[in-house]
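Re: beginner question about structure tokens

> Can someone show what the tokenized structure looks like for a real chain? I only ever see the sequence side.

Sure, here's an example I had lying around. Input first:
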Amino acid sequence: MSATTEPTADGTAPGAADGAAPETAGATTDERVLRTSPLRKLLARPELGSVVGALAVFVFFAFAADGFLRATSLSTVLYASSTIGIMAVPVALLMIGGEFDLSAGVLVTSSALISSMFSYQMTANTWVGVGVSLLATLAVGAFNGFMLTRTKLPSFIITLGTFLMLTGMNLGFTKLIDDTVSTKSIADMEGFPSARDVFASTITVGGVDFKVTILWWLGLVALASWILLRTRAGNWIFAVGGNEDAARAVGVPVAKTKIGLYMGVAFGAWISGQHLLFSFDAVQSGEGVGNELIYIIAAVIGGCLITGGYGSAIGSAVGALLFGMTSKGIVFAEWNPDWFKFFLGAMLLLATLLNAWVRKRAEATT
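And the corresponding structure tokens:
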């Protein structure tokens, strides 16, 4: 049979597999050294869908709400976003690692209560209460992670139990110690002014007031992005969320990674709790219930997958910004705030669908 000149299915000339030279130089190009186009890189970003949604919401309220574009209004939007974003960042990292934390909302209140009651009852400098609160809050995060890794129960069950225990403890201890459902004011105690400067101060730039929580938020986003993209721990987080068994097989410390992620959520709860306390100098024991869903929603809107292994810290920040623009945009537009949850739910569904579409397009172009 005579030799054919048709190329084989892999694009090389016959005999190339036996060492013969291919017909074209392009056939020898290794796909691993092909340059990735900017479009492919853009489509591969987890936060792309949320960025598109944020731009759409911004443009919408710019026309629908008078005064939305004022500098003072934008500072209000950023403040509302930061109070969500401080928690959305570590929650996003936890979700990338494949887990949830339903106790995150009440843990913020627990952090504030511990700081306030310890300072007041021990007549100590408020910074002592802040330090004790940090240790206690991190201990709760470590407890969640330890219970998850040792019992192998779903994080939903573990953190739901923690949520219920913290809710009861917040109310029970506050009534036991202060005889009311709120803490005593610590505004006149030593250390309060300096602690307020750190956690609840206002910075004036160009005649516009900005809350210091915005700086905390941006700092956490930068830190989390660096961890995810530039450190070995970031690789571990993605690996654990993508396939825990495979990650363990290649030597990833799965248990330590998950405990660390839960302690990261606890650290965010500590920052938010101190802001809550030093903004108002007293805390209601029943606050925080339901906020854990808001943090998860912000992370999902920002591109995090419920199944883990995919997402970004920047995406969670955009998700929190979307939340802030929607909540304050409705107020600026003078709409009935009862519709807020409707817009939040619609935004969640649309962002999730858009993120799924973007991910499919990214996979199709690779």
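Each token stands for a local structural state, so reading them left to right follows the chain. DSSP finds 14 helices and two strands in the chain.
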